[in-house]
Amino acid sequence: MSQLEKYRPHLHFSPQKNWMNDPNGLVYFKEEYHLFFQYNPNDSKWGPMHWGHAVSKDLIAWKELPIALYPDEYGTIFSGSAVVDWHNTTGFFPDEPGLVAIFTHHLENGADKPPKQSQSLAYSYDNGRTWIKYRNNPVLEHESKIDFRDPKVFWYHPSNKWIMMLATGQTISIYSSPNLIKWYFESEFGDNMGSHDGVWECPDLFELQVENREESKWVLFVSIGDNPNSDKGSRTQYFVGSFNGSVFKAEQEKTNWLDYGKDNYAGVSFSDIPEEDGRRIYLGWMSNWRYANDVPTYGWRSQMTLPRELGLRKLKDSYSIVQKPVQELDYYFTSKEVIHNKWIGKELQFDFEEPYGMITLNIESMDATKYRVDIHHTKSNVTSVIIDAQKQLLILDRHNSGVTSFSDNFSIQQEIKLPDTQKIELSIVIDSSSIEIFGNRGVFAITSLVYPDKACEVISLRALGGEIKIEEGYLLKPST
Ligand code: FRU
Fold it and tell me: Which end of the chain has fewer CB atoms within 10 angstroms, the N or the C?
């Protein structure tokens, strides 16, 4: 394997060369999913930002295309979104609907002045292959706000207007517009709400139907940047509440995390998925600002999480996001039941020498104090999922998963407190350099990079201090 291909994922998008961060401009148009992304074409470290571009028919196999947006006199191209202007609100599309990108221009102003961030437009007549920057850019500026970025725009049907969610320091500002060009301030959300561990970035707001109930809620994603005083690095929180076209109101005070792993940041959802489909699908950048620039890939850096379908579940006294890989992933696997109502006293092993795969397990613990799923990448490297019944924790331990020396932080355990460790349902997706765990029908996720020499050789299940019962266990191998 060439050095360039080492750690290259099979199921996840990664750029052929050089640096990538946030997903941008996620949109479905004319039977293609578009993924634009923060891209530095000159280096495999973060640098002057462009929008890279890839397209897919099924959200799993992506084709990288030429760079979509280049820096210009207003600055480099930071994160943003894309929409289809179905009704020619902009005037750009007299003949047929097309794509509009709404992004942040980031302009450096020298050492003694802060940079300037403003929002701008570009539009495309050829399904996102080439772009024309709007002649009167920027369309939205602020006199004093320095952090003023990452516009996520959607069409709000009840009042027939565009809504922009914008990250403004430690808050999210909401703007509206009839035409994407003239923007009006509506409200600001975030004071004393949720976590303020880092700068607020990359918001997204959308409505979700609550599972098995005749109600829907609005969900706001807010990513928070790295804070050197916290182990967690950069991560994403969400709020559940209501939106009236102008103001978002959160209903829950406690901070909700979208993912309990380290490596899911800046996630936002696709725009314009057809109503007949009806899914809300998002993906995140599968890395963490704490060590993203140092991960041991050669010639390219970063990959995206699997695209995930979002739902909302009512728990006892709160609502929780649920997420699962999009169903398109099923075509990449053949599935085989390998365990059925089996008791495990000590250990059970499965040979699983595959470039990628998945395991799903329904586990019931009888009296075990701990139980674990070990993904043996090679003889000496293992990533462990440990359920500690006494501490009521699920832990992902990657300290011996392969190369970890590029960051002290990388080996710190990732964990989630669970109300019930007696019964647990796990789906674990394994790729060349990542592990994604979806638990209890998606009510929690743990997304984590790993850098072993091989994806997997053996998977083992082990019970400590007692027994566990596997009601069902499936191994999913690559389909041929
Ligand atoms: C989030 C972020 C965004 C910004 C972009 C710059 O990871 O910091 O706020 O637009 O990355 O690359």
Answer: C
So where are the chain's domains?
A: 18-327, 333-477
What the block records as the tokens of 396 is 């992902």
- Report which protein residue has its CA nearest ligand 1's atom 8: 201
Fold of 18-327: Tachylectin-2; Chain A (2.115.10)
* Residue 120 alpha carbon to ligand 1 centre in Å: 16
Flag whether pLDDT at 352 surpasses 80. Answer: yes
Residue of 20, 36, 38, 165 to mutate, ligand 1, most atoms within 8 A of C-beta: 38
Cα distances from 182 to residues 28, 164, 299, in angstroms, run 25, 11, 41
Q: Judge whether 22 counts as a catalytic residue.
A: yes
Q: Ligand 1 centroid to 273 CA: how many Å? A: 25
pLDDT in tens, 7-52: 999 999 999 999 999 999 999 999 999 999 999 999 999 999 999 9
Ligand 1 within 6 A of CB of 79: yes
Cα(47)–Cα(20) distance, integer angstroms = 10
Q: How many whole angstroms separate alpha carbon 351 and alpha carbon 458?
A: 5
CATH architecture of 333-477: Sandwich (2.60)
